[in-house]
């Protein structure tokens, strides 16, 4: 499998020195303590760069004062757009809602908790200028994470690397800059089971990594526990590859082969040596083993079937209670209106 990160794609530098408008998409769920700091930090960083920008906040069904804080920021800044979702849809869909609304010719996706340092945006814009369509931020090390999280993350990447169809770069989150072209591609994928890292990887385009140190959260607490991370991993695998189905089939073949050989052995033994022992334990073991394998394989099929079910409903990805645009002038070519 070709590793996109090693082979440098040929890119042509852009004529412009910086994006005309940079949209910063920020999904937020119960982040009222962070949003003010976030807007201030972004404003400071953009001033240093002399970069026109807008912040697209997505209120992902927060139960705290996040929406009120966003509205206050919008009143004072003006460079703030708000997409107020009708309930909590989860980070992946919230991010998509923000991308749908972004008006810029380059878009950065960032967490609200300032774990993604705004200074890195400067490096990303350098990459954009060089002609890359995607500039993603790669964590230099996972300092904030404990050994268990590091190990499980490494294991996940190992698995997806082995069985996945596209290369998902390691230690890379959603924090990245994308050109309008890349964002339009991402937005055109309307599947419900959205594993953003998989989607970003699937759309392709010339990409480049910049290294950064991930800061600890400024305030509030992470929304990810091990259960959610486990589910995200399942999502990551099932939404990007059919390999588990294939593996199940091989499992099935292997078990059938073993069962066949065992069957032949027992027939042979009974015919030539008689049935001295009733063989109850063997029977139980074989039945349980086969039953277990079947249930496991059914479970894998069920995971995919459930996803097919959800996708065939073809529901809109989200509903927004209200969308408040920023006062930045759109530089986006008038195209699709997708939900
Ligand atoms: N988030 C969201 N909807 C959710 C959960 C999280 O929009 O259902 C946002 C959250 O407000 C934050 C970002 O996603 O801006 C990353 O979440 P978090 O910091 O909890 O994840 P971590 O940094 O620990 O991976
Ligand atoms: Mg965070």
At CATH level 3, the topology of the largest domain is Spore Coat Polysaccharide Biosynthesis Protein SpsA, Chain A
SS-based class: alpha/beta
Bound molecules: uridine-5'-diphosphate, magnesium ion
How many angstroms does the end-to-end distance come to? 34 Å
Percent of sequence in beta strands? 5-15%
User: What are the low-pLDDT stretches, counting only 5+ consecutive residues below 50?
Assistant: 1-6
Specify the biggest β-sheet.
8 strands, mixed
Give the CATH class of the largest domain: Alpha Beta
User: What share of the residues lie within helices?
Assistant: 40-55%
Total strand segments: 8
CATH architectural group of the largest domain: Alpha-Beta Complex
Give the strand order, joined by hyphens, for the main sheet: 7-5-6-4-1-2-3-8
Q: What is the CATH homology-level superfamily of the largest domain?
A: Spore Coat Polysaccharide Biosynthesis Protein SpsA, Chain A
